[in-house]
Amino acid sequence: MSRGDVGTRMLNQVLQQLINPPSASKAEIVRGGMTLRVGDRILQQKNDYNREVFNGDLGVITAIDPEEQEVTARFTEREVTYDYADLNEITLAFATTIHKAQGSEYPVVILPVFMQHYMMLSRNLIYTGLTRARKLAIVVGSQKAIGLSVKQVKDQHRYTLVAHRLSSAPFHEPS
Q1: In principle, which of 84, 87, 96, 109 could form an S-S bond with 69, CB 3.0–4.6 Å?
Q2: Average pLDDT value for residue range 73-94
């Protein structure tokens, strides 16, 4: 989850201070309670076809221009420029939610499992988090929260009416 003491917002602030601390030689900007600075890892949060960056793309801030009110980030081998007004499309990416990480892999995953987010704890979620790690996965948390996660299997049923629609659809023989 993103809120709370072990949510991604707080973890990103703490990790940013450790990994990319403020410096007189690094430009930074504060927007919406979030500090962005040159050298920060960022995550694109929605598809932006004009800039050709998409939900889940990871980048690094390479420049902040206060005069032009622009932030430039490198995504793979491309530079992308954001106006200050468009900074709601990105967020810090030192830590991310398991849901945002689905379909991605990372060399190391540190998975915080605490009762603070007890509503989300399940074996399925822990499995998804652990399988994002290519080389090393570390689980940090209370025994109670980890135990609850392992015991709780949440099979989410989707109510799409697909079966009903298929059974009532006219059948056509292939020609």
Answers
A1: 84
A2: 93
